[in-house]
Design a protein that fits this description.
Chain A: Belongs to the binding-protein-dependent transport system permease family. The complex is a heterodimer of chains A (about 300) and B (about 280). Chain A has two domains: about 55 residues; about 210 residues, MetI-like (MetI-like fold). Helices cover about 65% and strands about 0% of the residues of chain A. Chain B is globular, with a radius of gyration of 23 Å. Classes of the chains: A mainly alpha (about 300), B mainly alpha (about 280).
Chain lengths: ~300, ~280
Amino acid sequence: MSTVRTAAERGRPSFETPGARKPDTVKIVSFLLLLATTFTMLLPLFFMVSTSLKSSREMLKFPPTFIPETWSFGNYLEIFDTLQFGTLYKNSLIVAAMSVLGTLISSALVAYGFARYRGRGNNIWFMLLLSTMMLPYPAIMVPQFILFSKLQWIDTFLPLIVPAFFGSAYNIFLLRQFFLTLPDDLFDAGRMDGCSELRIWYKIALPLSGPALATVAIFAFIYSWNDLLTPVLYLSSSEHFTLPIGMSSLTSSRFRIPPWHLLMVASVLAMVPIVTLFAVAQKQFVEGIVLTGIKS
Amino acid sequence: MYLFISPWIIGFLVFALYPILSSLYFSFTDYDIIHPPEFIGLANYREMFQNELFWQSVRVTLKFTFISVPVQLLLALGFALLLNQKIPLRGFFRTAMYFPSMVSGVAMSLLWYWIFNPQIGLFNYMLSWFGIRGPAWLMDPDTALYALIIMTFWTAGSGMILFLAGLQGVPSSLVEAARLDGAGRFKIFVHVVLPMISPVLLFQLIMGIIDSFQVFTQAYVMTQGGPNYSTWFYVYNLYTSAFKEYRAGYSSALAWVLLIAVMLCTALIMKLSNRFVHYEGGGRR
């Protein structure tokens, strides 16, 4: 019997698909099904990596080869010349890091406010907050564009970063749910000791919120790292491009045949920060999702 | 207390409320961003409802949503149920299935554009193993949208994670009790498990619909809305009229129709779901 368990399972009574106790046909069929789906899911990824290591001639071969005939590790250096990959990567990292910072500070602050004070006025604001979770960005992008162009922010990173410092509804909601699970005694104790609310927030509430904050940081990072629409609207010169817009601009503009092998290199490298984040924070992330109870 | 929530209140007023209200105003004007807006009443809305491209974008988006969201949810739930057993390699399966969700939208679009290539792509090559001659996928107006729908199934892993978290919240005592009462697998699933995870299902359904009303990346990177407008998504239409044709007034009208559609859809699902969704402890939200 396997002992692979998530952090979430540990120590909490959990439901198992009924009848799972004895090894039976259901389990064998499940295993085979899982094997087949996993294979199908991983195949495109495998193809992405293998294409990234092919030469420009081999990538156009039919039938496509699964293992490169000649390993062109040079591709991984070439993209820094041909595609200005270093600039794209650096820009994306700057924007994502600033967005994560902004989202963490503002969302944690606002969520704490919503969790600790639940007066009537606050309830109205909270309902508003929930309703903005459903607000589609495309519905507000035109006036926002006009606003930011009046501020002379076009072709700067500001439109991509500044809104993050005012909190994002989804992350505020997530953190509020978490703060609600913290016992009141903690905060009362802090107040007895004469701490200001702000001090209680960063001395008591934040240190206890590791998993929830990690979850929010991951969400914010992924959102910013993958965002295409906002950069398409606001960034016009290629030295300001982030990864998504830089990569998509390469399919059409400068090449007669898009350099697919290099684009696959870019795709692989674009995944690296996200995979790393998950690997490092996986335990906290899963805990965060369970604790904050996304289901409610 | 307002000290704490003030960043969001300011953000809400500046980045949400002000844009919503001004786009409502713009939607009644003829506005090219450079010259001042000129009031023209309902003309934008009248034009929209007579515009063939608008209706095409609505058809494309609805078709995409109605196929991709339910199938993706079923796949995610199915995978989660399979993985919620004590099975060898369980951790590996879970990670492997979630992996595609870590690929960014643009990278995924580029990868699948390449996979769907009719001449040298992986998809048709693998179909040929089974003696099937695949269509031209993204090059063919009849199949382009289906290709994009197939692509969404690849990321079912992210929904699976949420379902798994939900399944692990189902108390084993409940399942045990049902089993002692002689309920079979299927009955336990329908009467015990499904009600317990119905909030997760509802959450994912609403978020899935809202997300697929806003599909942009695939249309922008892979098809530019083509061929022959077969992937002319609603938001791509909005983007084109705002930032290619500089019609801020008309696109604001499009934005408001989207906003209303999202609100109506959410309200409708919430209302219908009241009867089916079970909240622990009698519906604290």
